[in-house]
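Methods, example record. To illustrate the input and output format used throughout this study, we show the complete record for DNA 3'-5' helicase II. The sequence lines were provided to the predictor; the line carrying structure tokens was produced by it.
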Amino acid sequence: MSDIQSPAEAASQRALEAMYACLKEGKSFRLEAGAGAGKTYSLIKALQLLIERDKVDLPKRSQQIACITFTNVAKDEIASRTDRSPLIFCETNHAFCWSLISGFQKPLRTLVEGLPAWKEKIDEAGGSLGSRSIEYSLGHRSLREDRALLHHDDVLPLTIALMEHAKFRQMVTDRFPIILVDEYQDTDRDWVEAIKSRFLGQPGSPQFGFFGDHWQKIYDGGCGKLEHPDLVEIGVEANFRSVKNVVDCLNRMRPELRQFVKDPDAVGQVRVFHTNTWTGHRQKGAHWGGDLPTDTGKIAMENVKAKLVAAGWDLSAEHTKVLMLTHRLLASEQGYSRIAATFRYNEAFTKKEHPHIAFFVDALEPACDAFAARKFGLMFEALGGEAPQIRSHSDKTSWDAAMSQLSALREAGTIGQVLDHLHILKRPRLPDAVEKREHELRTFDKTGEAEFPRALDELEKLRDIPYSEIVALRRYLAGHSPFETKHGVKGAQFENVLVVIGRGWSKYNFGEMLTLSNAGEIPLAKADMFERNRNLFYVSCSRPKTRLALLFTQQLSPEALATLVKWFGVETISALTP
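The corresponding predicted structure is encoded as:
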């Protein structure tokens, strides 16, 4: 085997040696790994080194190395790649924090009583939790006679509050002398601030290693770039994913973290298409202004696809991923266009902020899947509670009949028919938030002088939509689609990627981001918006291994076009015409 290293391998080795030096010297560090740099590989190498080095001492002291992940999928991958070593305690942040705080029952009761979200429940129970145990299992907030069940959103604030106490901090150090955090940039902002103020640089604290990339922070609530005087910064200047054509663009986009490729001779392709010369009507409004109408956008996309096929692309789902941030066009392709047209704000259905959508996607659909598989325990778990009392065969028969009717309505009925079915039979029951809005709609007097509220107007329109659109929406949100939003592919890679960029999201305007990029200094009032858009754009452009194409359906300013020329090269850019 050749000892000659590729440029990417040499860059990766430099970063690993810097990381090994920190681990040896007990210094906390932040390893910044751009897209395709092999962040998980670096994390695994750190864990393997620690397992071998500390395999005798850690068990003697009843200690472990903590590895905090952002998702259960990442947790399972890391556990698998470290042979499920008992020296590694690998969990998501919520599970990790619960393992720390669960033993502090008395202070937990006091802290829970002080949480605003618990006030109503505790007031109804007499104003105190008494001697109830604090538990965390399904992540739903509930108060029972002998216990209080925490919501997901309760765990981190409670942990942060306990970090104020020296006894708690000492317990953390005694259990976990080394704590590694994966995807640090998306880790809860308040939790990271507590780590910075209560642990980093403090005598007797654990050694921390943070792995991630602040340019890939795309979730609200994450800490973003983590800076602290007691953190050693390590940059991984490697890209094992993409060909040089693509990496050159990423380097021009992000010159402060230059990446080297694995194979400098590998050939790829970059194409950028804009629709500035497209004539005719464009959409208006704060969220849609300047974008092509949906039907016209589909024509533009088909136009681009034809050009890519002529340039040698294989557009089959096995070879090409289409990423979209233009939701009406995406909804049209995916089969939930009427849902998209119903809501004023996309977040109502893309982030499940509307209680009906959250109930359908997160509870009812998984419950129906479990029923179809005859897994009744999972069905009731999906619905967010314990199984109801089934005292007789007739109870079981009633549930079976109700769920069978529901399955038929899901296929052929409207959303309103499904809701009415659940309202009448109460198997399963509608959540309180859903039932409340349904009641408001049923009892609103349209003949009166009061204006029909927008929320009820949206609900009325939603009820008329075929329920099959909910099934399609859930399929899309779960990622089972040849099309994705850019959020859905973070960490993924594909042979070819076509990114379709337009308007329609309240928090995103890529045209404005490109314009600001050419302006030099970013206005403070625009800083958060700019970073959010830049990061998602970077994530999108860094997914392909071989070929990248961008299609802008929104009109771009001359400054935005200048940014595209700077990043991608004038030779890659084409103007589409009808």
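Annotations derived from this record:
Residues 409 and 418 are 6 Å apart (CA to CA).
Residues 268-317+483-575 form one domain.
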